[in-house]
């Protein structure tokens, strides 16, 4: 009888019999990982340059405003207009970073690997969206809060505008929700990061340019209602009109008068909700297809 | 100029999803031109304003970005550029071919729709349509070269490109007049102003400065991209 030729060695493989943290933990871990990745944490130094440069630019008006408040003793800008003034910077951040969180997974077709774990499709999409929403919110909320603390510390003669600050924070939350859903949905349609960046920025540039243009044209023929509604094509002004002006009664941050009145505000809020819903549906449909491959 | 490389670049640019964005932007431009025409009824002032802000200010940089980075950045991203660079073709020729492909795409998707949009707005009145078409072509060439160079220099070419187009040309250019001297958009407008005789179109720069700057940027970027490809090292994705 000959010696056995093939031997299975006992290399000491052991089962994992610790606690299984489960679906929710996995989802939270994915969201936190994506959020860190958006700001380049845990990635190479080159991946940190762009997000932190943008954070720096976003902080600039807050720092300058505090300096002006301290030296010249006067208010520079309303909290609610911060987002509208810095909209180009916010849009660049959205365009630069939303493809990052969706494109690599689609490109390397690792979705089935995620879905073979307890994480479901909705968990995956939800985690990615939550990460982007949190990042966009932080990007606007941190400068606002710094500015607010600055106003408290500087202690101007006129009362502190806490109401305006809270309205701006609510607006920051709604605009983060709306922009992130749209941005991630657009970015998810291509596995290429470069094209994703271009598509998201094309969306912002087209909506902002078209809204300004149509609004100005309507104003030139004295149709002020249409002019106000045309401005709503720009998501930043839509949120400004719906939340800041509509819900909190702040001053508008655009030169054109928004459509006002209860019906108009309700319609604007509905528009925000519909846009978010459509983006989420598009995103889930896209991922159903990607997961099947 | 190398026909095979040109063919590959055309396929990369016009195949798959990129073409939709390249078609969408001119369609929006022409659609809006029709809308503005219907509302404002052929006013020359509004037409010039529309062409300056929308055609040259928004659509052209976007198309330049998509075409300019699109000819080379995906290949670098995929790593397939290695196959191209390992062939006995001079690297500057590779860069020049890709630049020609991007410029021809921009001529078709940016300059021609600009001409059509301006014609729909005011017809061929005071050379506005020709002026903006020539301006779009000149600006498009410079954008194509610059953004192709960015694609060779960095993995984040599109982000750097939009930061330049949106923040430098858009925001900084609006507040700091000096920044306008160094903006492709302004140079393109100067060229348009030179060709057109419309009194509503005026530019702060002289045509000599703008033309020299456009030429220098275009030629310089293509040459640099070629030189850069000669010593190209493919780094991994982060």
UniProtKB/TrEMBL annotation, chain A:
Lineage: superkingdom: Bacteria
Entry keyword annotation includes Transmembrane: yes
TM spans (from-to): 49-72, 84-103, 129-154, 166-189, 195-216, 228-250, 262-284
Keyword Transmembrane: yes
Assigned keywords, A-Z: Membrane, Transmembrane, Transmembrane helix
Name by which UniProt lists this protein: ABC-2 type transport system permease protein
Species this chain originates from: Streptosporangium saharense
Automatic annotation (TrEMBL), chain B:
Entry protein name: ABC-2 type transport system permease protein
Biological source species: Streptosporangium saharense
GO molecular function: ABC-type transporter activity
GO cellular component: plasma membrane
Transmembrane segments: 19-39, 54-76, 97-122, 128-150, 157-176, 205-225
Record's keyword terms, sorted: Membrane, Transmembrane, Transmembrane helix
Keyword Protease listed: no
Entry superkingdom: Bacteria
Upper classification of the organism: Bacteria, Bacillati, Actinomycetota, Actinomycetes, Streptosporangiales
UniProt cross-references to Pfam families, sorted A to Z: ABC2_membrane_4
């Amino acid at each position: 009888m000959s010696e056995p030729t093939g031997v299975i060695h006992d290399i000491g493989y052991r089962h994992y019999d610790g606690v299984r943290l489960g679906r929710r933990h996995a989802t939270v871990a994915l969201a936190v990982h994506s959020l860190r990745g958006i700001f380049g944490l845990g990635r190479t130094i080159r991946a940190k340059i762009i997000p932190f440069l943008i954070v720096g630019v976003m902080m600039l008006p807050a720092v300058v405003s505090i300096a002006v408040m301290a030296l010249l003793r006067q208010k520079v800008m309303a909290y609610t207009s911060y987002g509208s003034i810095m909209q180009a910077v916010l849009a660049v951040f959205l365009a630069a970073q939303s493809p990052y969180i969706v494109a690599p997974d689609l490109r390397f077709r690792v979705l089935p690997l995620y879905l073979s774990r307890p994480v479901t499709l909705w968990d995956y999409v939800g985690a990615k969206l939550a990460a982007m929403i949190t990042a966009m919110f932080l990007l606007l909320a941190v400068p606002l809060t710094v500015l607010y603390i600055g106003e408290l510390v500087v202690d101007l003669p006129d009362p502190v505008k806490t109401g305006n600050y809270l309205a701006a924070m609510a607006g920051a939350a709604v605009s983060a929700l709306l922009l992130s859903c749209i941005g991630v949905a657009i970015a998810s349609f291509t596995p290429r990061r470069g094209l994703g960046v271009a598509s998201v920025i094309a969306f912002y540039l087209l909506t902002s340019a078209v809204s300004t243009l149509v609004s100005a044209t309507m104003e030139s023929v004295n149709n002020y209602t249409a002019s106000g509604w045309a401005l709503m094509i720009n998501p930043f002004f839509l949120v400004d009109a719906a939340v800041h002006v509509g819900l909190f009664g702040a001053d508008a941050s655009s030169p054109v008068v928004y459509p006002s009145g209860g019906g108009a505000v309700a319609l604007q809020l509905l528009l925000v909700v519909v846009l978010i819903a459509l983006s989420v549906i598009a995103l889930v449909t896209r991922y159903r297809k990607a997961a099947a491959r | 100029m190398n026909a095979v490389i040109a063919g590959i670049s055309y396929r990369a640019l016009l195949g798959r999803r990129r073409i939709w964005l390249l078609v969408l932007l001119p369609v929006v431009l022409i659609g809006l031109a029709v809308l503005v025409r219907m509302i404002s009824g052929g006013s020359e002032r509004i037409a010039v304003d529309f062409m300056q802000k929308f055609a040259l200010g928004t659509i052209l940089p976007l198309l330049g970005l998509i075409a300019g980075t699109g000819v080379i950045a995906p290949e670098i991203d995929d790593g397939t550029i290695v196959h191209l660079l390992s062939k006995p073709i001079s690297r500057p020729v590779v860069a020049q071919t890709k630049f020609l492909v991007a410029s021809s795409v921009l001529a078709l998707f940016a300059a021609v729709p600009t001409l059509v949009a301006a014609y729909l707005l005011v017809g061929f009145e005071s050379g506005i349509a020709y002026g903006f078409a020539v301006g779009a072509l000149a600006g498009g060439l410079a954008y194509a070269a610059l953004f192709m160079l960015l694609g060779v220099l960095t993995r984040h070419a599109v982000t750097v490109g939009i930061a330049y187009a949106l923040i430098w040309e858009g925001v900084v250019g609006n507040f700091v007049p000096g920044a306008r001297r160094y903006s492709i958009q302004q140079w393109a407008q100067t060229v348009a102003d030179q060709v057109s005789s419309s009194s509503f179109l005026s530019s702060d720069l002289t045509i000599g400065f703008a033309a020299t700057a456009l030429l220098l940027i275009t030629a310089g970027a293509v040459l640099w991209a070629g030189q850069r490809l000669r010593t190209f090292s493919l780094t991994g994705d982060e």
